[in-house]
Design brief:
mainly alpha, Cytochrome Bc1 Complex, Chain D, domain 2, 6 helices, binds heme C
């Protein structure tokens, strides 16, 4: 029990470190590589069947992507692509994405503003 708790917290730490590295990499990008939210919107047509046209999950197991932090979205898509995060659908979808695709898609979803209110 104690041992598995240690493994879980190490996993979390590793994920944190991975996103910190991704965030640092993103900040270091030269302007010519700046993510293009409009291109991301076009590319997101392939995602809309599950994540919705405006990034609100359209099927029960697909999370909302609208308004998520850009660095988080980049980190998750790269994790699916590398196999660090695994999911039967997303691992396949992320495989062919380039760094530019990922940056554009993340910029698009991060550019959407969401409003939260009690039901
Ligand atoms: C066939 C359905 C489907 C399609 C198409 C799809 N996704 Fe997903 N996506 C999912 C599901 C289901 C999950 C939840 C994965 C999990 O449980 O770990 C997910 C998770 C994600 C996550 C992680 C979100 C989080 O909160 O951690 C991102 C980012 C993502 N998808 C982006 C995309 C992008 C970008 C595309 C298009 C290129 C796409 N998805 C296409 C079903 C889909």
């Amino acid at each position: 029990m104690e041992r598995s708790a240690t493994v879980v917290s190490l996993g979390k730490q590793a994920r944190w470190r991975a996103s910190a590295v991704a965030a640092a990499a993103l900040l270091a990008l030269p302007p010519a590589w700046a993510a293009d939210a409009q291109a991301g919107q076009r590319k997101s047509q392939a995602c809309a069947v599950c994540h919705g046209q405006m990034g609100m999950g359209a099927v029960p197991d697909a999370p909302h992507l609208a308004g998520q932090p850009q660095t988080y979205l980049v980190a998750q898509l790269k994790a699916f692509r590398s196999g660090a995060r695994q999911h039967e659908v997303m691992s396949v979808i992320a495989k062919p994405l380039s760094d530019v695709d990922i940056a554009d898609l993340a910029a698009w979803y991060a550019s959407l503003e969401i409003e939260v209110k009690p039901r």
